[in-house]
Amino acid sequence: MRPATRPLSISCLMLAYALFAPPAIAFDASVATRLDARGIQYVVDEDGDYKVTYNYSQEGRSQLVFVSGGTESVAGFRVREVFAPAARVAADGINGPVALALLADSSSNKLGAWEIRGDVLYFVIKLPDGIDAAQLEAAMDIAAQTADDKEIEFSGDRDDL
User: Signal peptide span per the entry (predicted)?
Assistant: First the structure.
């Protein structure tokens, strides 16, 4: 009877490891190649996104911008997101009328739209993944500037994001 319990114990250990092992970071090295080509400094965060900090030294402000480490497939397109946080929903009073104003603002943008994820308002640009390094940098610049302008609008001098 003893030999039958050994495979069961090994199976239990393997299951426990699978359940409690830290998740693997899935990121696409092609983003690193494009950022490196433009001389952009970044860190890869815990879920595999590329995090870049923009510094607006004249204004004494900074702005975070992320490039998703993975892509999603939509009708044969590989889509990558560039996103920048602009406000905290509860802390900055984003309610129904404000959300409607953000929707109206999104309709005038040629690239990007406002999205709420959890308690954070983001400016998100969804792009075909085949863009080159200069185009990726341009999208990041747009996301950073748009999000920082909205953060100023919501919070005044505060520079949390």
Answer: 1-26
24-155: what CATH class?
alpha beta
d(CA 129, CA 65): 17
**Stretch 130-151: mean pLDDT:** 97
What Rg, from alpha-carbon coordinates, does the chain have?
21
Copy the structure tokens of residue 78: 């590989």
Q: What is the DSSP letter of 21?
A: S
User: Domain spans of the chain?
Assistant: 24-155
User: Half-sphere exposure of residue 7, counting CA atoms within 13 Å on the CB side?
Assistant: 3
**CA 124, CA 121: separation in Å to the nearest integer?**
9
Is the model's pLDDT at 58 over the cut of 90? no
The rounded distance, in Å, linking the Cα atoms of 21 and 45 is: 18
pLDDT digits (tens, 9 = 90+) for 28-48: 789 999 999 999 999 999 999
CA-to-CA distance for 13 and 99, rounded, in angstroms? 48
